[in-house]
Design brief:
By secondary structure, the protein is mostly helical. Helices cover about 75% and strands about 0% of the residues.
Length: about 130
Amino acid sequence: MALVTGVFLALVVAALGAGSGLDRDRAYYPVVAIVVASYYALFAVMGASLRVLLAEALVAAVFVIAAVAGFRRTLWIVVVALAAHGLFDFVHAAIIANPGVPAFWPPFCAAFDVMAAVCLAWLISSGRIRAAA
């Protein structure tokens, strides 16, 4: 259920961006990537662990830097960052023990991230969004 919901929600976010014209601004998907990267830090706060929060913030910083670099250079970096975050979701628990992460979150977030990456890659490939700044 979490996988299906993640895919569905990513498609809704992509459709909202396309339907409203928000995705015409090259910042749309980098902002999505930044928001996605922030949730594990939120879960660390919910789990009341400063040590875990610092670890999650460090990992999130990598994805934030990638999102900003993608915005400034090419959105293909954002495609890679979203897909990489989806892969990170599968190994997250083995790397960082975050007690605030709901059980459904890793598969949900992985599905969302990968589908968002696929949507952005399709938008760039089809010429609807230009990759370069």
